[in-house]
Amino acid sequence: MASFPGPSSTPYNWQNKATENFSRLCQLIVTICSDLFRDILSHYIPPGNLRTELDKNKNKLDKVKSINPQQKRLLYPDPGKASPMAKDLDFSLLYVLIRNICGITPHKNGWGDNIENGDNSIAACIDRIRLQRNLISGHSKTGSMDNASFHSTWTVLENSIIEIEKQLTGGAMFKRAVNALYLCELSPASTKRYVEEITRAFKSEISKKKARIDDVESQLNQNTVMKK
After folding, report:
1. Which of 63, 165, 187, 225 could make a disulfide contact with 12, Cβ separation 3.0–4.6 Å?
2. pTM of the model
3. Integer Cα distance of 136 and 26 in angstroms
4. What is the spatial distance between Cα 80 and Cα 212, in angstroms, rounded to a whole number?
């Protein structure tokens, strides 16, 4: 990785370097990381078998609370509607499928838990990318990230992407794509949709968490009333 990312495009003015850092990371997640997750899904489940695997694992996926109604309709469309392909799935839904139906061995501490330093298993690298994506989403309120946080986040993502690609294919296509994005010129106009997607995802996940908390509080209240 070069010492400094590429410059912003001259016809546009970024509010500051921190907003450019955030935008570059949003594009990395929405484009390269999502495409990598699509390749992981297709590596473990050939595209022609995806419908079969989704149907076989429906009961299991129905229990995953992070899947919202819209995503469930995408996975299990009404009769006559097209079945989803990897290209139709967003980052969060790809992660759910990779974790639950691909048969990938969990990392040492288990899916969704803390990842040990030095654990370079496929699952550990996938969870590192998910964790960094969540950290990036947390910056959507300000739409900015300082240089130190940017470089730290980028390095974790870059190393995880390279390790996954090395283990799955031995290629370097994603490595080249990461380097190209790091060095390329950006403009607010060109990255707007990536920032908006990360922001929407963050708001959606916050809403789902609040809904789960409300459900728990409602159940506790009902139990309290029953005891009385």
Report:
1. 187
2. 0.83
3. 7
4. 33
